[in-house]
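Today's session is about reading a structure prediction critically. Students often jump straight to the picture, but the first step is always the sequence itself: look for stretches that repeat, for charged clusters, for runs of hydrophobic residues. Only then move on to the predicted structure, which in these notes is written as discrete structure tokens rather than atom positions. Here is the chain we will use throughout the hour.
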Amino acid sequence: MSVICIIPARGGSKGIPRKNLQEVGGIPLIDRAIQTVSNSAVADHIIVSTEDAEIASHATRLGATHVPRPIELATDEATSESVLLHALKALRVTAGDLLFVQTTTPLLYSSDLQHLVKNYAGCDSSLTVTESHGFLWRSTTDGSLTGVNHDPQKRLRRQDIDGAEYLENGAAYLMRIEGFTAAQHRFFGRIGCSIMPRSRSVEVDNMDDLLLVRLIDKALAERQQNN
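Below is the predicted structure for this chain, in token form.
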């Protein structure tokens, strides 16, 4: 299977200034993403889509190909799908498989990508997830709360709930390029998944997330050294 990996990494960010260049374990987020994909050996080409010269420099230094992103696709309103479609068009890629990796789940391991590819057989699109056991509630129009994934009147123990629930962790997605360009969305056809542990599924959206990820990364590194 021919796989092209695209990593979107714009220069701006609302929650964290220059987020893609912030470090976890002493390594910028963009560098971590590129190195993780490279070490996994699941992609034939690694592409970084960015409008930022410094991020582009990091990408090319690590052996990735830079696709210049138009300013209109580097805003908060631009969708990831629009960025992916632009990069595919710029590269004139119309077939094969697309691996979409985000920098904002930096505790993604190369082995996670290998598992994603392994579990992709027979699927049209796939994603990384973590198991979820939470009881979700939603506000109603009268200001009360109602259960989303459970019946509050028939409260079950978690071990008694039929079927697993999964939380999308935003780390990586894999999809057939022809299907993606037709659907204009990352989810279509038969959708598969690859499960990551909850401890490594934290998405970095604000400074608290970044602090938490740094602490987890440090703890994981210390555990590995002690084993």
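Discussion point for the tutorial: DSSP finds six helices and eleven strands in the chain.
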